[in-house]
């Protein structure tokens, strides 16, 4: 015969387990689409990393080759990474969700100049406003990315 209290505890724990699985399976709005950069020369896929923070990598380039060879991260300040392909390059990392549409505490890497900036993002409909800055957000530039799919 099953003890009623044991059954209640079991059902309670099962409910918590199921709700946790459901919470992990939910996809954030950022992850549902690919994003064109502001110049539409690249598509970026944003995903949630194992640590729960959002990252983004280049998954498409309008011009994937330079001089007949795949483009590489030739401006990277780390000389050992200058032969890494731009396709697949992680350019966003460390973002935490802030409210319904904000993402903060991240960084963005610009392969055009090899520099990394502090970054925050705001999702507004089909646009993602990506603000890279040095020090404080007032000293920066905002690029508007658009949904690619």
Write the layout of secondary structure elements.
Blueprint: H1 4-25, E1 34-36, E2 42-48, E3 54-61, E4 65-66, E5 69-70, E6 90-98, E7 102-110, E8 115-124, E9 127-133, E10 140-147
Antiparallel strand pairs: 1-2, 1-10, 2-3, 3-6, 4-5, 6-7, 7-8, 8-9, 9-10
List keywords for this structure.
149 residues, mainly beta, eight-stranded antiparallel barrel, two-stranded antiparallel ribbon, globular
Report on the structure:
By secondary structure, the protein is mainly beta. 15% of the residues lie in helices and 44% in strands. It has one domain: Lipocalin, CATH 2.40.128. It has one helix spanning 4-25, and strands at residues 34-36, 42-48, 54-61, 65-66, 69-70, 90-98, 102-110, 115-124, 127-133, 140-147. It is globular, with a radius of gyration of 20 Å.
How many DSSP H or I helices? 1
CATH architecture: Beta Barrel
Share in helix: 10-25%
Biggest sheet, spatial arrangement of strands: 1-2-3-6-7-8-9-10
The CA-CA distance between the termini, in Å, is: 56 Å
Biggest sheet overview: 8 strands, antiparallel, barrel
- Which structural class is indicated by helix and strand composition? mainly beta
Task: Say how many strands there are.
Answer: 10
SSE pattern: HEEEEEEEEEE
Mean pLDDT: 88
């Amino acid at each position: 015969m099953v003890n009623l209290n044991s059954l209640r505890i079991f059902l309670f724990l099962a409910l918590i387990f199921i709700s946790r699985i459901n919470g992990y399976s939910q996809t954030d709005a950022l992850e549902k689409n690919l994003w064109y950069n502001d110049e539409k020369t690249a598509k970026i896929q944003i995903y949630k990393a194992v640590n729960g923070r959002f990252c983004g990598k280049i998954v498409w380039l309008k011009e994937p080759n330079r001089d007949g060879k795949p483009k590489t991260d030739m401006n990277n300040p780390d000389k050992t990474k200058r032969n890494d392909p731009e396709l697949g390059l992680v350019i966003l990392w460390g973002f935490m969700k802030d409210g319904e549409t904000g993402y903060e505490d991240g960084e963005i890497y610009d392969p055009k100049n090899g520099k990394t900036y502090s970054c925050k993002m705001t999702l507004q409909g089909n646009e993602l406003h990506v603000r890279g800055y040095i020090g404080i957000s007032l000293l920066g530039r905002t690029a508007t990315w658009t949904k690619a799919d």
